[in-house]
Amino acid sequence: MKINQYSQTPLKAYSENRVKDAAGKAQSQQQSSAPSRDVVNVSSQAKLLGAARQTATNSPDTREQKVRELREQVRSGTYKPDIRKTAMNLVRDEVDFLS
What we know:
Elements: H1 9-32, H2 44-58, H3 64-76, H4 83-98
């Protein structure tokens, strides 16, 4: 078996690629060392939801007395909701949501 019959060209080509790879790595390291920024995009719906949540958190509980009265009516079994009014409010809210 003769080892010397093959030329050294494939090894030389590999050496050239190694030099190119090293240069590419150095260039990518220079680019990656520049400060990068993370960007967050928030949809308008998410902004609206956040504003609504903040408003609800900051608003005082002005219906506290009414809630206490209704809670007591429910506990005593005397609470009689107006089903027609409730249904109309649900339909109105749904129409407003779809418009």
